[in-house]
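Re: your question from the hallway

Yes, I did run it. Sequences:
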Amino acid sequence: MSNQPHILVIDDEPQILRAVRTILIEKGYRITTARTGEEGLTLAAATLPDVVILDLGLPDMDGLEVCARLRAWTQIPIIVLSVRDSEQDKTTVLDRGADDYLTKPFGIEELLARIRVALRHLSQSKGAVDPVIMVGEVTIDLSRHVVTRGGTEVKLTATEFSLLAYLAANAGRVLTHRSILEHVWGWAEGDNVEYLRVYMMQLRKKLEDDPRHPRFLLTEPGVGYRFITPN
Amino acid sequence: MNIQTSISIRRVSENLVAILITAITTGILILLREALSAPVIALLYLLPVLLSTTRWGLGPGIMASVCAFLGFNYFFITPYYSLTVHHGQDVLALIVFLSVAIVISQLVGRIRSSLANAQDREHEVSRLYTLSTALVALRGMDDVSKRLATDLQTSLRATACQVVVDPGASISAGIAVSPEDTTLTIPPDHVFPLQTDRGTLGEIRLWLDRPALSPTDERLLRAFAGQGALALERAMLVQAETKARILEESDRLKSALLSSVSHVLRTPLVTIKAAATSLSSGEVSWDSPARAELLAALEEETDRLNDLVSNLLNMSRIEAGALKLDREWNILSEIVDSAVGHLKHITQTHQLEVDVPDDLPQVQVDPLLMEQVFTNLLDNSIKYTPSDTKIRIRATALPGDMIQVEVANEGPPVADEDLEGIFDRFHRVTSADRIPGTGLGLSICKGIIEAHGGHIRAENLPAGFAFIFTLPGKVTKIASDMPVE
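Structure:
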């Protein structure tokens, strides 16, 4: 039993806790729930969960603070839950250590997908990342710097490749504009999102079947981008 | 040097000048001694006394009188060059002279000081008049206290004046300082309350370059404080009244909103309840196509509810002037594609045509709010036009890095007088019960577009109707880099 992934859900709304608990237990996860930030922090330290799901709007403490206090001692994946109109909060909490976010109301498949990605990254951080990523008819070989689409090689510029590589290496996970700009361009400061937008568009044109309706290079409005693989 | 010493120096010099004038008169009279009789000389000696009194007041006048008396006695009453008097008649003349001189200087001095008083009063009254006319025209508490501070500081010749308004209760406190941006670190020399029948509204603090206020200044301060307190009280009442009116207005808005919203919210709830109960009742078999249909309805209707809630939230923010934009550079086509993708379930009834090139200048917008604009405009276009007609979204670059977006449909034209009001809250062109809606969608669009520095309008087309809006854009130039080896 104890090899089932253990998830700590910190949310003050009983209805959400009830729904999430029911579904996650059904899916074979072990669940611990907390109603306040303080309780969540205590339980996180006591039970050492594999993933933390954290609501940003807690009654006793700012979600940002909970996140910061967790990050002070652990790297366990944190998925934050937030409402639609607080992009700034989401971005801040993601830039300060949270791994992913979900906007309420969310579909259960989305929640399960986020948890799967978080668990996969947890295991990957213990082992090596798969150097070859396949999505549809696109194959990305991170070690050989080769990208093919339908068997033919796609010419990418150096920046395009490092952008794609960064996204693909974090498949399933949201990456904020700031983290991409910092990682790919080395720009820690400044608002250069417009460059990123242009490069993403070029990537989509080279790799997506319908660049205007992308299937794996997705935009997270106001937050960043997400590379998703079919499974 | 303080004012006290400068005043006493002035006094001394005035007296000295009075003595000097009497001495000059004495000199002239000595030259004319042989030609003039004693009574004439006595009369002529009254001249410096009069002059000193009228010029400098009672003190110097008396000083001149005494000097004239001594001069008259010494130089013109026999024996000359001595203060001794031989004839009883001369003693009488001298005493009469001194009395006349002193009485004259007193009379003239009194006239002079009452004239000065009258001038002071007039000055005071005119300052007070200026202040009160100025205060009548001011509506805000801040304006009143600022004006009061400035006027007091100049009228009382104070180093600085601070008017602190703190009536307590729900009215915010304010501080006005004159001269502006003076930093006051030491405690004030003089504090005077701003008092009305309702209680103390605050206080006036004065910093002086002299130890105390003169009685005149004190009187002026009291009068100013009275006027100021009245004006502040009036401003407070105006403020309270405005607040009450705003509350009443927003109350009316809220009840209108509530009645409009409760209807619109209930529709998806009816569907959700029906779908959920029929699924849980076991009436619908597992493999029936109805099951998939009901599940799809559940999902769509919850999305619609969510959209409604966002719209309401945005409305209340626009209303409160608290719409917060998370602006960043965006490619407009991405936002349009995303909005269209989210609306797939309701756009199926119409032919949607999107003509938004992805190489348009980027726009610095809040992507979620802009998506809401497209969602609302499309939702509106779908609701008010017949099925199977065309809806076209087109964006073009205008000169000056502006982007123009047009959402056009083939629906019936809108009466010209409605084109402007169509973006007003609760404005429904069609009778309300025929087509469900909150009457908020378009006003939210207008609020969002204008918050972005754009402009939106509605226009009848030769065949149809269009919403047209503009947004400021920016062309991004990307440096080319090397392809991968």
